[in-house]
Amino acid sequence: MQKLIEGLHRFQSEVFTAQRDLFTRLSQGQSPEVMFITCSDSRISPTLITQTQPGDMFVMRNAGNIVPPYGTGANGEDATIEFALVGLRVRHIVICGHSHCGAMKGLLHPEMLETLPAMKTWLKHAEPTRKIMDANYQHLHDNALVTATAEENVLTQLENLRTHPAVLERLERRELTLHGWVYKLETGQMFNYDHAVGQFTPLVRPEPQLLHEVERAVG
Ligand SMILES: [Zn+2]
After folding, report:
1. DSSP helix/strand/coil, 198
2. Å from CA of 22 to ligand 1 middle
3. Domain ranges in the chain?
4. Which helix (H) or strand (E) holds 25?
5. What is the pLDDT of residues 17-52, one digit of tens each?
């Protein structure tokens, strides 16, 4: 906790003062263009990896970046999505999964969840992902399997997102675009689901030299 307290001191004495205009403006209200739905994993910092500012993204996080289908009792998620669309009128929703996701490992290995009954119940919202993995990904193992699960799960959760009335209404009026992303912890790369080719492709291609260095570091 000491790290947090020292950080708060540094934020107030250095960062807040330097960006006082931004924070004064934000105190009047927010109008983020993007809703960003991602995993609670401590290794993902949405504003850091997208280099955005406070006020740019309306963020919803939970274990496994899951969007329960509308009306299945997940009141927090239902209300947060409704407010993003009706209250804030966001134009984009990104669902961002990630490599090495503990929730995806739990989905693949339910025996790991014996001491986590609430997680076991929560992951029922990702059951279609598990069925797809069982049927089509028997050839993958370890990290490759977890990353593929994170990718398929992003697509499952995009489907669940479309069961929300506010989402459907905005999509029909062409006022909303949905995006499926997967973040690779080990390279810092973001992959986007490309509907045209039916697969995830790098959203930003890093400089060749940088990619070489990252790959060498990762092994
Ligand atoms: Zn995760």
Report:
1. coil
2. 31
3. 1-30, 32-218
4. helix 20-26
5. 999 999 999 999 999 999 999 999 999 999 999 999
Q: Model confidence over 74-120: pLDDT tens digits? A: 799 999 999 999 999 999 999 999 999 999 999 999 999 999 999 99
Among candidates 60, 39, 57, 44, which has minimal Cα distance to 106? 39
Q: What is the dihedral of CA 197, 201, 203, 204, to 10 degrees?
A: -120
Ligand 1: centre distance to CA 155 (Å): 15
Tokens describing residue 165 = 């009335």
Q: What is the pLDDT of residue 73?
A: 81
Encoded tokens for 99: 């490599």
Nearest to 100 by CA among 155, 180, 182: 182
Inform me whether the pLDDT recorded for 207 exceeds 60.
yes
How many Å lie between the centroid of ligand 1 and the Cα of residue 102? 5
Residue 25 alpha carbon to ligand 1 centre in Å: 33
Is the pLDDT at 214 greater than 90, yes or no? no
Q: Which range (3-17, 65-79, 169-183, 197-211) has the least confidence?
A: 197-211
**Cα 40 to middle of ligand 1, angstroms:** 6
Distance 153 CA to ligand 1 centre (A): 11
How far, in Å, is the centroid of ligand 1 from the Cα of 101? 4
* Distance from Cα 9 to the centre of ligand 1, integer Å: 30
* Helix H or strand E encompassing 95: strand 92-98
Q: 32-218: what fold?
A: Beta-carbonic Anhydrase; Chain A (3.40.1050)
